[in-house]
Amino acid sequence: MELAIGKAGDRDITVDAQEVVTGRTCIIAQSGAGKSWGIAVLCEQLLQARIGFCLIDTEGEYFSLKDRFSLIWIGSGESCDAEIGKTDIREVMHDAIRSRTAVIFDVSEAEDMRDEVAKLAEILYDLESRLKQPFLLIVEEADKFIPQIGVSIKKIEEISRRGRKRGLGLMVATQRPSLVAKNVLSQCNSQIIGKLSIENDLKAVSLFFSSRKEVEELAELEPGEFFVMGGLSREKVKMKFRDRVTKHRGVTPRLVPAPPVPVPESPAAPPEEEVGEDPPAAGDAVIPVLLREEALDIAKGKRKRRFRILEPEERIVSGERVYRPLLAVEVRYLGGFIRKTTKTASFVLDACTGCIVELDRGMKVRPGFSELLGLDEAAVKIVAGLANGGSTVAEIEADTHLPPGVVKKAVKQLAQAKLITEVKTMGSAVVYVPLLTEEVPGLHALRRGEDLPMEPLREVPLEAKVTESSLRTILKGLEPTAEIVGLETIYYPVYEIWFASEHGERSIVLDGISGKELPLPVS
Ligand SMILES: Nc1ncnc2c1ncn2[C@@H]1O[C@H](COP(=O)(O)OP(=O)(O)OP(=O)(O)O)[C@@H](O)[C@H]1O
After folding, report:
1. Can you tell me which family this protein belongs to (predicted)?
2. How many CB atoms lie within 10 A of CB 236?
């Protein structure tokens, strides 16, 4: 029996139901790359074929399968078919296996998720040792239950080794393969692998590929695209999971630009009554992917070493996660050849430095407005427009249409900020040359990047240095018609790492999503 799960171009991709149900499969892809979608498609196919399975749902996102299919939803609350803690799970699972009924085991509200899952794994293994009826256990967020470091649910490990003979298959899903017990991953004879970008995770799946080049292709996959390999497919095939029959509940919330709000110069003290044990959310933060241990591990590889001596010259002094404020900005301006067309630009700015950042598999830092902070509008206009060969004051006046007094004052401000320098030429004319280390980007060239999954921030973030008014001044200097129409602060996790050696201390900033070193200063 074949299950139609996706498409490669016009070709339907099917997988063998027997292999899915009684084999060991891993579904791996970073957050937002389409794992839950893919698992739901597989479940829909299994439900249509009346094949029994039990899906451990850690986020409460699969109950929409009930809209179209008959299944048992075990969870917390009265709307469930059976409540955890109030029902005899063994009896329910026994009947489900016998009647080939699917079960959603929703632990999203359970007090101790691991404990409930451990009990379920025991029950399933025990029942299947007697019943031996094909049945599949699907474990979402496997890194929570069978971690590489920490206490693993031994029964799931046993199912991965000895489940097949009992008719009990295992499908494990994770966004962080490097955090899943290696002995379980290596037992997976079938793999469905989507987009991955973190080096440790790429390394963790390299055992399934024959070359590094193949592994690197994973970083280029689009959401929904997966390689299907091993027992499920005669040869490695790249496919996109098909459309769902039921509604997808794990939809990524869209970041909607908020109406302009003033950015406070410094964080205001919270009102008395709000100070409690659980502080109110400071805003929305991108969910970190990298654990502190992993950040420290990456930092170890970045220590300077003495020439030809393996012993590192530097020691890691500290490594802490902090949240940098980012400003998601939307600007409207008049553009086009005769400046009659209203254009919009959306971009994200690091509010500590003024650098432009693009969110895409982590953060990409691009030249931005850092050197322009604190200048007035005229100075921004002049320095951003100065040709590399430089201009005289008269040429600046002609190019900018600014009055002589304003140009004189701005030139003085720019010279003090060391953003221009004088080059004497023939005769008495003085030519001013720009000293900007980075070219100022045009508004049309700014991009916002991807929306990353967010959660409420419950710790104190770093302080923003860029205010709305300083940003408005820069934008007006670059484009007089520019108006800020949306401004929202979001927070981004980074690790600040400090090294020390006999020569002193230095620091680096690691991206909390991709683990890459960022060209940003520590706070
Ligand atoms: N095959 C697909 N076809 C169409 N859209 C898709 C497909 N796969 C994913 N998507 C889109 O991508 C979004 C994210 O997918 P999904 O929720 O499955 O991610 P995920 O890998 O499970 O993320 P997380 O691990 O953070 O839960 C979905 O809301 C959906 O809009």
Report:
1. Belongs to the HerA family.
2. 15
Among candidate residues 122, 119, 100, the one with its CA nearest the CA of residue 111: 119
Distance 41 CA to ligand 1 centre (A): 11
Per-residue 3-state assignment (H helix, E strand, C coil) for 342-407: EEEEEEEEECCCCCEEEECCCEEEECCCHHHCCCCHHHHHHHHHCCCCCECHHHHHHHHCCCHHHH
Using a 6 Å cutoff on CB, does residue 222 contact ligand 1?
no
- Measured in Å, residue 225 CA sits from the centre of ligand 1 at 10
The interface pTM score, or ipTM, of the predicted complex is 0.95
pLDDT band at 249 (very low <50, low <70, confident <90, very high): low
pLDDT at position 268 is 52
Does one domain contain both 146 and 218? Answer: yes
Q: What is the pLDDT of residues 36-91, one digit of tens each?
A: 999 999 999 999 999 999 999 999 989 889 888 889 999 998 888 999 989 999 99
Please tell me if the CB atom of residue 6 comes closer than 6 angstroms to any atom of ligand 1. Answer: no
CA of 19 to the centre of ligand 1 (A): 24
| Closest CA to ligand 1's atom 15 | 34
Is residue 389 located within the same domain as residue 452?
Answer: no
pLDDT tier, 265 (very low <50, low <70, confident <90, very high otherwise):
low
Q: In this structure, which residue's CA is closest to atom 29 in ligand 1? A: 251
Residue 35 Cβ inside 6 Å of ligand 1? The answer reads yes
Would you tell me how many other CB atoms lie within 10 Å of the CB of residue 443? 17
- 406 and 497 inside one domain: no
Contact 12, 45 (CB under 8 A): no
**Residue 429: CATH number of its domain:** 1.10.10.10
Helices within 132-269 (DSSP H only): 142-145, 154-162, 182-185, 199-205, 212-216
Q: What atom of ligand 1 comes closest to residue 40's alpha carbon?
A: 18
Say if ligand 1 is within 6 A of residue 223 CB. Answer: yes
d(CA 343, CA 335): 6
Residue 371, in any domain of the structure: no
Residue 310 pLDDT: 67
Question: Which residues neighbour 115 within 8 Å (Cβ) at sequence distance 6 or greater?
Answer: none
- Assess whether pLDDT exceeds 90 at residue 267: no
Dist CA 184 CA 148 (whole Å): 9
Please give the Cα distance from 441 to 475 (Å, whole number).
11
